[in-house]
Please model this.
Amino acid sequence: MAVVLSRRRGSRGLRRGWLVGVAATGVLIAACGSGGGGSSGGTPTGQASGGASGGSSGGENLKGQTVTVIGTWGGDEEKAFLQMVKPWEDQTGAKVQYTGTRDINTVLTTGVASGVLPDLAGLPGPGQMAEYVAAGRLKPLDDVLDIAKYKQETAPALVKLGEVNGKTYGVFIKAAIKGLIWYNPHQHDYSSAPPKTWDELMSQAKANQGNAKAIWCLGLESGAASGWPGTDWIEDLVLRTAGPDVYTQWYEGKIKWTDPRIKKAFQIYMNDVVAHTYGGGKTAVATNFGNAGDPLFANPPGCEFLHQASFITGFSQFKTHQAGTDYNFFPFPDIDPQFAGAVEGAGDLFGMFHDTPAAKSLMRYLVTAKAQDIWVKIGGALSANKNATDYPDEISKRSAEILHNAKIFVFDASDLMPTAMNDAFWKAMVALTNGSQSLDQALSSLDKVQQDAYQSS
Amino acid sequence: MMRRILRPVVVAAGDRTPSSGAAVLAPPAPIRVALRPRRSLRSRRARLLLHCAVSLIMVVWIVPTIGLLVSSFRPSSELSRSGWWTALAPPFHFTMSNYENVLSQQGMGRAFVNSLFIAIPATVIPLFVAAFAAYAFSWMEFPGRDLLFVVVVGLLVVPLQTTLIPILKIFADWGLTGKFLAVWLAHTGYGLPFAVYLLRNFIGSLPRSVFESAFIDGASHVTAFFRLAVPMSVPAFAALAIFQFLFVWNDLLVALIYIGLSNSQNLPMTAAIANLVNSLGGGWYLLSAAAFLSMALPLVVFFALQRYFVRGIVGGAVKG
Model:
C-alpha cells in the first residue's frame, strides 16, 4: 500500500513538476526574447567588429566600421588616447570603441583562452605577449606596418621587446623613462653641473641640504601594486652597479637575489636612500607615490630629491608647478663607469588580435609620428617614436632625448619578471623600507619565490 | 561563498526572559511584588546598556562611510595633505568639483542606464527561477529531490572566476558576447544557488496544513504556488531582491568579461567609475564622489525594501 501511495504521489508530483517546468521555461523565454530585442536595439555598432572585412579593401574609406580597443588607460589618459585617434576617425569614417580597465591581464587572459577578443589591445607586458602569440591569437605586424620605417624611428631596445621569434607583434605607442632624479631649483640649481656619479650625488646632497629635512622623498604606496617605486630604485642601482648583462640574467631568474651583485644594490638603497628619507621608512611606505614629491615644494622643504619616472609630471603638485623653474631633473648618475649611459625605461605595448582592414589601418596610424605628437603634446607621456617632437615643455623634451639617445637601454625588470616574482618583489620592498624584514630575510625569501616562479612560465 | 558578504543583522532583542533556573529560585509572591519597581529599573538599565552597545556598533560601522562622504566634498589638494576629520573644523574647504567632474565624464549617463538595464532583469530572472525551484524543492515530491537540492546548493562553493572562460566560450558560440542578455544569464546562474537556498528555507517553513487543505480542495501546484506560496513569501523575495540587486549593481568583473571584451558601449557604471583612474592611479580623488553617486540607487532600493529585509533573513534562518 505504501508503495502504491508513493507511486501515485510520485506521478502526480512529476506531472505537476512538468507543468511548473513549462511555466518556468516560458518566463525565461519571454525574458530572453525581450532581452535580445533590447540589447540589439541598444547597440547599433555592436556587430561591426570581426565581420568588418566585407567593406572596402585597400583604400582608407572604412565608413561604418568599428575597431574595438582595450587598454589600461583611464581618466586623462583615456581622453588623450581618444583625442589621438580622432583624426583617424574623421579621415576614415570608422569608429574606435575603447574599453579601459586596469585588470587588463585578467581580461585579456580570459579572452585569449576563450577566443573573444578586441581588435586591438594594450598588452600587459612582453611575457604575456609571448603567451598570446603562443596561443595563436596575436597577429604579426610585419605586413601591417611599414616595418622598416618603424624600426628606424623607434629605439632598438623597444623594437626588440615587441618581437617574438623574429616577428613584430607588439609596438610601443607610449613610453616612459625611469630613474630620473627630480629636484626643486629654488633649493639648489643642479642644471649647470648635475652630479655625475653616485658618490658625487650623495656628497653634494649633504653639502647643499640647507634647511631641507632629508635628502630623499620616497613614496611606495600604490594600492595593490604598492612597492613598485622601490623596485625601480633597485633596478636602477643594479643596472649601474652590475651592468645590463647581470640585469638581464637577474630578471630572467638566472641569478639569485642573494648574489652579492644584487645584494649590493639593496645595500645602497637601505644605507643611502631609506636611511635619509623624509619621515623615515614607515612614512615612505604609507605615502602614495604620486604625492611623494610634495615635500619638495614645501617651505621649508622636506627633501632635496625625488627619484621617479618621467610620468610623475602628471601628478599632484608637479601639475600645479611650473616645469623648469619650480622643478627640474637630472638623469640617474653612473656608479660603475663601465656602464655609463645606461637608462631604464618602460612603456605600453600594443598588439592586434583581429586583422580587419579597420584594425590594420588604425594600427598603422597609431605608430606614426603625427599620431604620437597628439598624445605627446597633451603631456604626461613620451613617444617611442623619435620623430614625435611636439613636447609641451623642455623637461619632456629632455626626457625624450634620453630615451632615444641611451647607449644602454633596458626595460623595467620587475615588469619582465613572472607575476609571482614581481608581486614578491613589490612586497619585499615594502617590508624592507618599513623595517619589518631584515635584508637577509627578504632576499632569501625572494630566492624561495624565484625557485617556483620561473618554472611555470 | 566568497562573493556574498553577509553583513551581520543586528536584531534588537526584547527583555531577557527569566531562565527556568531563576523560576525555581523565584522568591514568594509578596516579595516579588515589592521587588517589581527595582526589577523594572534593572531591566531599564539593561536596555540602556543594549542601546549603548547598538549605538556604538552603529558608529563604528558608519564612520568610514562618513569619512568617504566628507572626502568626496574636499578638493584634491587638501585630500592628500590631511585627514578627512580635519575638514570638519574651520576653515571649511568644501567643493562640488569632484561631483561635477564625475558627472561631466563622457558616457557616465549612458553607463548609469546600462547599469539599470543589467541590474533589473538580472535581479528579476533569478528571483522567478529560484521561486519556482524553491517551491518544487519544498512541496513537490519527485525522485532525487533532495540530491538535486544538495547539488544546487553545493554550487555555492564554486568560485565564479573559474567559470569565466568556459561560459565566455559558450556565449561566443551563441553570439551573445557584448549583449545584455549574456550578463543576465551569467548573473542568473551565479545568483541561483544562493537564491534557491534562501527561498527553499522560507517556502519550506510555511505551514504544511495550509498547502494540504488547498490540495484537498483540489488546488493544483500552480494554484498553490501563485495563491499561497508567493503571497506568503514576499519578505523573502524582498530580501533576496536586495541581495541580488546589490551584487549585480556592484559587479565589475562579470560585466567586464562578458561585455567589455567586445562592446564597451554596454558597460555598466562600475566600469565607468573604475576608469576614472588612470593606469598609474592618478585621479583617485574622484573615486569617493563616484562611489556616492553609484551608491545612491542601491540605497533607495534598500530603504524601500528594508522593512522586509530583516524579516526575510531571520525568517529564512530560524525556520525551516
In short: Chain B has 14 helices and no strands. Residues 1-34, 316-320 of chain B have pLDDT under 50 and may be disordered. The CA atoms of residues 59 and 184 of chain B lie 37 Å apart.
